Amino acid sequence: MRNALITGAAARLGRAIARDLHRDHRVIIHYRNSADAARELADELNGIRPDSAAALQSDLGAVADCEKLAREATDLWGGIQVLINNASAFYPTPIGEANENAWDELIGSNLKAPFFLSQALAPSLSENGGCIVNMADIHAERPMPGHTIYCAAKAGLVMLTKSLALELAPAVRVNAVAPGAILWPEQEEVDTETQRAIVERIPLARTGTETDIARTVRFLVGDPSYINGQVIAVDGGRSLNI
After folding, report:
1. Coiled coil: which residue ranges (predicted)?
2. Of 8, 21, 34, 93, which one has the greatest count of Cβ atoms within 10 A?
């Protein structure tokens, strides 16, 4: 059975991905602050299959944090074969109001941590034909007003995906998933009218679900052995109509 590390897995999309991959993987639930939620999820999954889930904490703010998490994860069950870089900060940074702390947090969580965690886990991933799936965003290519730093970070993550796919081949496949309107942001209040306007611009005329993302990640993790360096948009066609 393969071992998967999912960052930011205590809630929302990360939790859905962890539950889906747990069907045939051991899963490591990384969390930053959500200790109770992470441990509850680990207990839930261990109740289904003993010794199949664990929770590990890391801020992932520094290279040392990434390297420490990689060591702890590989030591747990003897290696990591699947890395899902899902942890992500998200909030607006309007021009004239953005500061260096916002830059460091948004670039750090969305680009710096995925790179250094991938680098730290590359030896383990390479041993067993492993794979990396990065959580990108449709706004990596089409910017979202007021979110310049976030969009730049996700654009960097898309290029990181392609670069790692080249650098780590043929031992490791690297792909990304770019969600559209799946879950409304927790950090921002999105009023009903704004939600309605967004949905109206989605060709499939509805928002997606956490399951849509988890199934796509599972597909990429499964055995699409000739898919590498790709970004799959899961957005109901919204990126066609932004």
Report:
1. none
2. 8
